[in-house]
Amino acid sequence: MITIDNLTKFYGNNRAVNHISFTINDNEILGFLGPNGAGKSTTMNMIAGFLPMSDGTVNICGSDITKDPIKAKENIGYLPEIPPVYPDMKVKEYLSFCAGLKRVPKGKRKDEIDRVMGLLKIKDVEGKLIRNLSKGYKQRVGIAQALLGDPKFLILDEPTVGLDPNQVAEVRALIKSLKKDHSVIFSSHILSEVSAVCDRVIIINKGDIRAMDTIENLEKSFASSLVLHIKVKGDKTKAASIIEMTKGVKELLDINDEGSSIYSFAVQLEGDSDEIRDSLMSQCINSGISILEMYTDKPNLENVFIELINRPVKRSGLEELLEETPDESEGSSAEEPAEEKEEE
């Protein structure tokens, strides 16, 4: 298990990550979502031990990343947003170098390199200079180095950037398969990708966690925003009256005249959408109104994401005061110059 507690990061007087806490369970893929500048990459850099934290603790499989960094990092495989590859090295040479850094025993190094090259399907370019590879192949080499040594915890920041659709599907399948033996934190701007592979998601914005739950539960929490679209043929006034009077209809949002006595209605629902649809269909048919089309816009991860990142954060007066006057000891150090800017 990976435990992140009260994690905080200041860049000068700017608080980029604001006292966030969460856990990553064994054999779980956790999606990490947020707009540009939300604090995602900063958080992942701190978890990996690449960036010093201003406050908080990160415990990786029982080891504190600050107090026992070597032991903690033995359990981490990290792919930053920009793969850390050396362009003047050949692929196999680079992976051998990384295996040495990760203290993979020399007797097992060749088999381990062959294993990750097979997983990422880069065996055919093992003798090529990395500078001559396509962006997609460079990305796959970056993922391969993260997997070297079979770490228990993987941090993957935008792992499918630059891949073609076929490669994206392959990497998605790989990430899902890794769940059997690893815990994974997975950041992506492609929400459909997150929905396809993640067990839970964290949505972060401006350094604050806005939500943390399964995708299914997050979508259910926004069920009150269901919109039903109905296309009918018949009397417009009668149809509108039936819709407005139906139990569970919250509001009639829009009516569109499509000609030939065909009308489209958009309806805000509250309650069980199946029961409301059945009731509407029955009443319309009994009134001589034909139902041509009926479908529901169910909330998805994209709807939840947009709603949450645009929702203002409520802060206590003390929190607002602390933001205006951050502790100088947190806000400045030789490692954290004030002009340094937050990564995504």
Commentary on this structure:
The protein is α/β, with parallel strands linked by helices and 344 residues long. The protein is built from 13 helices and 14 strands. The strands form three sheets. It has a six-stranded mixed β-sheet with strand order 6-7-8-3-9-10, sandwiched between helices. Strand 12 and strand 13 (262-269) form a beta hairpin.
Briefly say what this structure is:
This protein is an alpha/beta fold and 344 residues long. The protein is 36% helix and 27% strand.
Order of adjacent strands in the largest pleated sheet: 6-7-8-3-9-10
The ordered string of helix (H) and strand (E) elements is EEEHEEHEHHHEHEHEEHEHEEHEHHH
Total DSSP helices: 13
User: Total number of β-strand segments?
Assistant: 14
| Main sheet record | 6 strands, mixed
Q: Please state the structural category.
A: alpha/beta
Overall morphology: elongated
| Strand percent estimate | 25-35%
Q: List low-pLDDT spans.
A: 325-344
Rg: 26 Å
Average pLDDT across residues?
85
Helical fraction:
25-40%
Query: How many angstroms separate the termini?
Result: 25 Å
